[in-house]
Amino acid sequence: MSRPLIALDADGVLVDFHVGYAHAWQRAFGQFPAERDPQAYWPMDRWQVERLEGERLTHFGRHFDEQFWSTLPAMDGAVEACHRLQEAGFDLVCVSALEARHEAARLRNLRELGFPIERVHATGNASGTRSPKADAIEALRPLAFVDDYLPYLRGMPPEVHLALVTRAPNGSPNAGEDLRLARSIHQDLAGFADHWLQQLAR
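Structure tokens predicted for HAD family hydrolase (202 residues):
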């Protein structure tokens, strides 16, 4: 029999996009940016970087490449949290709003970091009132889905436990009426694992 499934977002839940952003800036412009606000939700607010446009923006964008998506560091406590969930009897899958061409790099990154994850579903980052991840969650039918971006909880199957990771609060989109979509709210993935396993033990 197949094991029950938990679906996890990557950036901000499993891996640290903010640190990766700073390294991409260093590769593009030769200097690791100073930190402006460690509690900023968006990386351009966390780091002391200029607002780019035109050719400089295009140049920076080229550094979000195979190297970038395959070398992001793990979020604190995330690898251990995943192993706890797996050891409790759950299989884990990553559902990421990533371009399909980077799916293999993302999986390689997760595996090299030691995450017990064998599948990545790259959904793309379409705008709209329904999450670009909703179709993947509909097909996978996990018991729970964990994301750090509240709008990506929209349009999900009602039977899936939707968990929101809040992490950095400054400038966060994780506020407002859509908070009712989250069945549980946590500071990080370790917090979700604590909650989920405590519920399981009852």
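The chain has a mean pLDDT of 96.
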